[in-house]
Amino acid sequence: MKLKIGDRAPDITANNQDGREIKLADFKGKKVVLYFYPKDNTPGCTEEACNLRDNYEALIKEGYVVLGVSPDSEKSHKKFISKYKLPFDLLADTEKKILNDYGVWGEKKLYGRTYMGVIRTTFVIDEKSLIEEIIEKVNVKDHSTQILK
Fold first, then answer.
1. Contact between 25 and 128 (Cβ < 8 Å)
2. What's this model's pTM, rounded to 2 decimal places?
């Protein structure tokens, strides 16, 4: 089932980089930028995370909470956050439950090879937990502008 604008955002329960349980329900009444990315410390994912970091104050000012999700472990997220001084939580979805619930785990192609992986996507969720926007063509160099437009 593909999610669309206006749908209720599937709830999330996952551990962040510190092993603390985070739930989407914890942010009811706030706008959430839920961004899915393939892997910590890879060029595109680093560029995207750093762009969100560099524009974090503008996102906060507009009332957004930022949460990143990938299939990496809590330990990997902790190192990634520390290395790039990221000011937001990264959620570990090693079982790929959230990725599947949001429909962002799927078939990808690279250099003629087909494989399963994270389809880089961002969901902007409103204060009532409804999907307000889905960004499928993420510009990793300027992602915050896509969100704040």
1. no
2. 0.96
